[in-house]
Amino acid sequence: MSTRLANGGRLLNKGRALEFTFNGKRMTGVEGDTLASALLANDQMMVGRSFKYHRPRGIVASGGEEPNALVGLGENGKFEPNQRVTTTELFDGLTCASQNHWPSLEFDVGAINSKLSRFLPAGFYYKMFIHPRPLWKHVYEPFIRQSAGLGKAPRDRDEDSYEHFYAFYDVVVVGGGVAGLQAAKAAGQAGAKVLVMEQTPHWGGRAPVDGGEVDGLSVDRFVEQSVSELHAMENVTLRTRMMGAAVYDHGYVMGYERVNDHQPDAKGPRHRLWRIRAGQIVTATGAIERPLSFAGNDIPGVMLASAVRDYAVDYGVSVGDRTVVVTNNDDAYRTAITLKNLGLEVPVIVDARPSGGGPLAGEAVALGIRVENGKGIAKVKGGKRVEGVEICTQAGEGAALETIKCEAVAMSGGWSPVVHLWSHCGGKLLWDDENVMFRPDGDKAPTGAEGERFVIPAGSADGCLDLASVLDNADAAGKAAAQATGHTPGKGAAPQAQPETMTPIQAVWMMPQGASYKLRMKAWLDYQNDVKVSDIQLAAREGFESVEHAKRYTTLGMATDQGKLSNINGLAILSDALSQGIPQTGTTTFRPPYTPISMSSIAGEARNETFQPIRKTPMHSWHEANGAHWEPVGAWRRPYCFQKPGESVHDAVNREIKQTRDSLGLLDASTLGKIIVKGPDAGKFMDMLYTNMMSTLKPGRCRYGLMCNENGFLMDDGVVARLDEDTFLCHTTTGGADNIHGHMEEWLQTEWWDWKVYTANVTEQFAQVGVVGPKSRKVLQKLTDDDISNDALTFMGWTEITLKGGLPARVFRISFAGELSFELAVPASHGRALWDMLMQAGAEFGVTPYGTEAMHVMRAEKGFIMIGDETDGTVIPQDLGMDWAISKKKEDYLGKRAQQRSHMTDPTRWKLVGLETLDGSTLPDGAYATADGTNANGQRNVQGRVTSTYHSPTLGRGIAMGLVLNGPDRMGDVLDFPKVDGTVIKAKIVDPVFYDKNGEKQNV
Amino acid sequence: MLILTCPCCGVTAEETEFHGGGEAHVTRFGPGSSEDDFHGYLFEKVNPKGVHFERWRHNNGCGKWFHAARCTVTLEVFGTYSAQTTEPPQDIKDKISAKRPGWSWREFA
Amino acid sequence: MSEAVSALKGASFDGFVTVKDTGLHGMITLRGDLASDAVKAAVQDATGAPVPGQREVSGADGNWVAWMSPDELLLIVAYDAAPQIEADLRKALSGSHHLVANVSDARAVFRLSGSATGLREAIAKLCPVDMTPGAFGPGQFRRTRMAQIPAALWMPTDDSLHVICFRSVADYAFNLLKGAAAPGSEVGLFS
């Protein structure tokens, strides 16, 4: 059984016990434990079931590469699925539960898949569930969804907070092992501004576990000393619990800091995502040990040799009393030696190399450990935990020579440098045949903004496997990074460690070499996605020869661990099946993040109230307090209508329209864009921007104008007021203000930069209120002593007035509703006061605030177009019968040339008309008018579509506008508009002006 | 994510402060131009693999437009310069020549 | 006349730094040839401060001139003084091509104060700007992005920082700054 040892545990504070629960079972760990070490200390060998076959699975690794041991962590608003126990620090009161089983971890129905595994090979789902098609939706998909999936999605809102942080460094060192620390020291001493981040809570990485001496100090002491030296440097920042998640273009590094995962009740954010710009990035990310592919290599108790060693040394945890070590390299001997020295039994070291290992092997033999060279494991015996192994000849087919009882198997298939961050932004790899690994190709580094190399690998991440060369390499990396960022590195030598003699690794991709199919289909490559040696071989036979295809077909490396343990082994199996070398087969692409990071950390502050900016007018709080039913318009919130208690939205809209037309309505029009265009060339510029002639507009007058883009299509409209001889005020649509201001500046800066014109976007300077209805002048006259009579302020005029109390205001006499109406603009800081004044003064007229829907209906009753309804980016003014707004005198305006293109002048372009339903009902939005016959696709031909449609309370019937083939020439024709329910609405083509055709009401 | 230096305000900032505006040095054709010229102006933008000249706006900054010369393959930025010009300045062209001998882009080289 | 009110009416929040809506300021957009004597003199007369250099802010204590772009300044003055200054500027610049607009009501201004390192940290959570002392400090004026909105920053003193944004998003900006200054979320970087 796995248990806590009396001695050892360099990272533990055994004085402080921590309580936690796993699947409701109370357990105890100590401070310094990971959840993994604590589970093992409690003999919890089995921690989950696999994805596809629901096989019992235990902890395999001791770091972020762990594929099996994922749990649902926490509860309710703190629940998060798929958390790796190896990277979860234990805290008092932690609760977690295993995943992917039903009804219980010990007894699981889905494990039947395992019995059927012979019938569930790679591509099974693709092959099986494709026919008959109708079964997919109702039978197959629900079944697959039920049985697949890892953790459950959280049900409650996340209680925690998250944030981003922007930081800038000369050199960012990813990894706080001996390599990272040494690189940071070298760069820091040269004067570079350095950040060094370590994903665990501890500095030093794995070197202290392996031991050795540096400059006469134990590795532990050397790490301590390096950290204190770095702390003393003002130009160096050290952060633990922070993973280098990603490297992107131009030195952009993503640092994922788990601020409070280990202290969930502490204040502050749970995670902080550092968005870092680095001059140079040193990836001191270490290496990951590879599993060996033998039958039963997934049974709980089979672990990476380094992990077995880590648990013993770092956490004082023994995975089993009897541990068989199986390897193809010297490093795993350290595990055997460590265990033996702790008083545990190592019945045998199985070394696949015929001539065995080097000095470390000698040391093991001297300790009395049996070593079997040229041997392999035929299969592991056991179900929910390891019971023993069958040993065989590595060169054979798996005939058992001997069965050895054991509780754990420590395996080592060699080491793979963590090249992920090197590769994220295009760093290339080369295959190192001698060390059997992909490592960074120093000649093909990622390049940055200046074309410079900006990533430097260091230590094991660069393929160095012994302490002496790691330090050398990392020191050089730190110096190179400092140099590249304009600093002068010191000339001092790297710290010295004793070089080690190692017997070369031997590539072992399958164990034994001639394993039978039966063995191969129990030899796991990808633990998390249940991909076996036999699956990759099948994929190759079926023609999925590209590594990218084989990966997708078998799902190798596509789980949340992204194949950290499986990719190289799978690649080797594929290469072997294709009888080609590993470099010829190539690797799959390493994509960020290195290990999964929380979605919330990516969102950062963008949640709840700060999910997105919501623009509010100065009158927003009044609207909010008075029943506003909101409509988003751009980033603004505008009242759609103001609902009274018990009133429906539809009724509110009708009431607002009726009251406005009968007496007086108020519209908060503050959101309309307001842009000042000024200068000696302002008139010339305005004539280019608008289809109309604007330069002839007189100061004091307003003109409605259309704006097109160079494609000729309508992009915005609004009323232009001429403020003085060289100043115009352009009103734009609510959503268009920023775009139109940008559009103006673009032309001024990039095309007509010699024109003397300045613009300023003053949208937010003014609160604007539409005072609309027959009583509008009356109410306005109550507020000012200035003359606003029909003679003094004629239709389409504007003037400055002073409101009683002294507030200056601009009044524009314009109308979008077809009634007598005025728009009042005051400084935004007085907006609410103006609104209150108007409400008070209007009380005797039954003043009614109205929203955007009433505004829309009233403009449609008048046949006024709305950008975004009548236009969709493909409509030109001529389509809308607005030739009157297009100057014939101007030689040029934006869009003029495009409107001369043959397609634009095609007489069959659909044109704007009014539509009146025969039965008075309201046409559906966007409905099409059908025509005779069908098109090439067998669809009904169409001859028009609805662009705006409303129930008009004024007329008591449905009204609509639409674009119709030859529409203006077909007044009185009746069109068919089929609805989705199959019925048809008939509508007559009419003039689009439904209300007050002569415009008498607005001109009184 | 790119880093660009705005030549108008001098800031070196990340891409989120900027907004791309497509190909630079496009000649406007208006009324009176031929169908081909106008079509070319509106629709035939180059999208080269390698050296490219683009328009950018510092929209979360000084609001000014400028031009950038960069490599679409490596994302190397050769330089940024004023938008008030009809062709890339000589020093930018020289810099590109030094790094990408034999380059050409439209009529420029 | 009705009382002018800022978007958040002086709201304040105490986190590891204090965030406060500073209320109304007079603000005037001035576009023109910043190198011209006319502009230099007009700006000096209006504010007592010189035309600042590229990305700089001149002046002090509520009378600032901020460099917005190569042809634009933002004059920050007392709210009540703005209309007169606007008129004076127009008059002074009448002989040259220029644009002067009173935009005193278009924006919101927040003041961060308290811990000198803390206010740098709070901003570094929201803006892609190097907030290290030495990289940014008093005298500089930086227009940038704050989370999802445009904003500008300047530091009147070593231990205070002003953030300016559009009025309509004042609520959003205030919520952002409150979150960034939340107690317990100190980063501990610039100390």
- Classified in CATH, the superfamily of the largest domain in chain A is FAD/NAD(P)-binding domain
Specify the overall morphology of chain B.
globular
Structural class of chain B: alpha+beta
The CATH architecture of the largest domain in chain A comes to 3-Layer(bba) Sandwich
**Separation of the first and last Cα atoms of chain A:** 96 Å
Total helix count of chain A?
25
Mean pLDDT of chain B: 96
What is the CATH third-level topology name of the largest domain in chain A? FAD/NAD(P)-binding domain
Radius of gyration of chain A equals: 38 Å
Determine the structural class of chain A based on helices, strands and strand pairing: alpha+beta
Largest β sheet strand count, sense and barrel closure of chain B:
4 strands, antiparallel
Oligomer: heterotrimer
Shape of chain A: elongated
CATH architecture annotation of chain B? 2-Layer Sandwich
Estimate the helix proportion of chain A, in percent.
10-25%
Mean pLDDT of chain A: 94
CATH class of the largest domain in chain A: Alpha Beta
How is the biggest beta sheet of chain A arranged?
7 strands, mixed
Task: Give the beta-strand count of chain A.
Answer: 51
Order of helices and strands of chain B: EEEHEEEH
Strand order of the largest sheet of chain B: 3-4-5-6
InterPro entries (chain C): SoxG (IPR007375), TrmE/GcvT-like (IPR027266)
Pfam family, one (chain C): SoxG
Protein name (chain C): Sarcosine oxidase subunit gamma
Organism (chain C): Roseovarius gahaiensis
Note down, in words, how this protein is organized.
- By secondary structure, chain A is of the alpha+beta class.
- Chain A contains 25 helices and 51 strands.
- In chain A, strand 38 (714-724) and strand 39 (727-732) form a beta hairpin.
- Chain B is of the alpha+beta class.
- Chain B has a single domain, classed as Folate-binding superfamily (Folate-binding fold, 2-Layer Sandwich), CATH 3.30.2270.
- Chain B has two helices and six strands.
- Chain B starts with a strand and ends in a 10-residue tail after the last helix.
- Chain C is an alpha+beta fold and 191 residues long.
- In chain C, the strands form two sheets. A six-stranded antiparallel sheet of chain C has the order 1-2-8-11-10-9.
- Chain C is globular, with a radius of gyration of 17 Å.
- The chains are: A alpha+beta (1004), B alpha+beta (109), C alpha+beta (191).
- Chains in contact: A-B, A-C, B-C.
- The interface between A and C is large, with 52 and 54 residues.
- Chain A: Residues 619-890 form the GCVT N-terminal domain.
- Chain A: Keywords: Oxidoreductase.
- Chain A: Residues 169-420 form the FAD/NAD(P)-binding domain.
- Chain A: It comes from Roseovarius gahaiensis.
